[in-house]
Amino acid sequence: MTMPLGTTLRIALSALERNRVRSLLTMLGVVIGVASVIAMVSLGQGAQAMVQAEIASMGSNILYVWPGSAKSMGMRSGAGSITTLVPEDVKAIQEECPAVRHVSPTVNTGVALVFGNQNWNTRAEGSNELFPAIRNWPVVAGAFFSETEVRTGARVAVLGKTVADNLFMGGDPIGQTIRVRNLPFQVVGVLKPKGQNQWGRDQDDTIVLPWTTLQRKMLAISNLHGAMVSAVSPAATFIAEQQIIELLRQRHHITPDREDDFFVRNLTDIAEAAQATQRTMATLLGSIAAVSLLVGGIGIMNIMLVSVSERTREIGLRMAVGARTGQVKLQFLLEAVVLSVTGGLLGILCGAGVSLSLAGIFDWPMQLSPGAVLSSVLFAGAVGVIFGFYPAHKAATLDPIEALRYE
Q1: What is the pLDDT of residue 278?
Q2: What pLDDT shows up at residue 301?
Q3: 43: pLDDT confidence band, cut at 50, 70 and 90?
Q4: Per-domain residue ranges for the chain?
Q5: Angle at 184 between CA 108 and CA 160, to 5 degrees
Q6: Kind and range of the H or E element at 226?
Q7: Structural contact between residues 55 and 49, judged by C-beta atoms closer than 8 angstroms
Q8: Looking at the whole model, is its pTM more than 0.85?
Q9: Distances in whole angstroms, Cα of residue 72 to Cα of each of 77, 81, 224
Q10: N or C: which end of the chain has fewer CB within 10 A?
């Protein structure tokens, strides 16, 4: 006579209910394993998301071009020590590099700002009207300066949120006149807050001016400190990098036996390296945590073997009254699966709780992955089947006569 699956499951649950403490202790290994996997994967994916957000905050498909890195008398010069990058180079990059979408000259310097009786020291960034598009940094009040204002070297300024807060103390800065190194500038916009970058620098502590104004009227130089470049797509950043290198080598008349008198920094390359590192760490931590599941599975097998020994007479009695080998095997297999799956579900709850707690304590992002949750449940079920099979098989192959004689 074939016993319904529901009846077999009730018998399995009843057997586990009779030994609650032992069942809970058996599940503990699976709970710890699954919780570890969930916590490690969630925190690892949160770290990857944080890296991606930080790179995205620096700009859209962005590359930086700086003068320097050329050897002179056997010595390597640093960034900015060579003044060979000029506005004409930036114009050529825009016109002759198909993989480049936008480009802007850059000039930078430290400045002292004054408004009324308030003053603030910050860094001035000289750029053109494409700054918001290249840096993916829109204004939240007012507007960014125009191409005409860049061309004419107008005294207009766009403030970062930190600068605006410290100079105007909550007031509206749009249309106000501030002094930058004792020169009057009209505030035309305020940038959207960005917060700190991965190096801990406050990105909002800045003031953006037309590069022509900063270059000619404040620094009195003809060269540039660098250029910001936005490629047409993330994949095109490497093509754009090669096009820029070839173009500048040609324009600067650099022969094949000489090194570049400039260098190009590709942020996509940095982002991919950082993400690869985070993925490797997440995989490593997840693998280590998965060992706990293996240990938990071995614990289930040990307890089930003990259970088979303790219930030998019960098994013999069931087989004597007509229970088939497959039914006995299924009962013990269900007990193992129930232990592992229940432990897996409890582990998911514990893992999510640990992840949220650590994220709150250390101010670390957390992303609970549906894939990791599903994989943990399936893996926990597989642990129950794999490590419960041998005890179930041993129970099903007992000789009923010998089992009934067992003391």
Answers
A1: 63
A2: 78
A3: confident
A4: 5-54+273-405, 85-251
A5: 50
A6: strand 226-231
A7: no
A8: no
A9: 7, 11, 20
A10: C
What is the C-alpha to C-alpha distance for residues 281 and 194, in angstroms, rounded to an integer?
Answer: 27
Within 10 angstroms of residue 304's Cβ, the number of other Cβ atoms is: 25
Conformational region of residue 134, where left means phi above 0, alpha means psi within -120 to 50, and beta covers everything else: alpha
Distance between CA 382 and CA 401 in Å, rounded? 33
Amino acid identity for residue 115 in this structure: F
Contacts of 84 (CB under 8 A, 6+ apart): 67, 223, 252, 261, 262
Token look-up 């000029």 returns 86
Instruction: Write the DSSP symbol of residue 156.
Output: E
Cα separation, 100 vs 61, in Å, equals: 10
Tell me the one-letter amino acid at 312: T
Q: Could you please report the per-residue DSSP string of 327-375?
A: HHHHHHHHHHHHHHHHHHHHHHHHHHHHHHHHHHHHT------HHHHHH
Quote the distance between the C-alpha of residue 210 and its chain's center.
Answer: 34
Residue 249: its H or E element: helix 237-251
Neighbouring residues of 170: CB distance < 8 A, sequence distance ≥ 6? none
Q: Provide the pairing of β-strand 139-142 with 156-159.
A: unpaired
The SS3 call for residue 297 is: helix
Cα–Cα distance for residue pair 152/150, rounded to 1 Å: 6
Return the structure tokens found at 382.
């597989």
Beta bridge partners of 186: 156, 177
Cα separation, 343 vs 335, in Å, equals: 12
pLDDT digits (tens, 9 = 90+) for 245-263: 999 999 999 998 888 889 8
Res 290: pLDDT: 67
Q: How far apart are CA 318 and CA 251, in angstroms?
A: 91
Specify the residue for token string 């970058």: 197
pLDDT in tens, 139-169: 999 999 999 999 999 999 999 999 999 999 8
- C-alpha–C-alpha distance, residues 290 and 294, integer Å: 7
Three-class secondary structure of residue 185 per DSSP:
strand
Strand partners, 200: none
Could you report how far apart the first and last alpha carbons of the chain are, in Å?
28
- Please list, in sequence order, all residues whose beta carbon lies within 8 angstroms of the beta carbon of residue 143, skipping any fewer than 6 positions away: 188, 189
The token duo for 113 is 């700002």
Q: Which of 124-133, 205-214, 269-278 has the lowest mean pLDDT?
A: 269-278
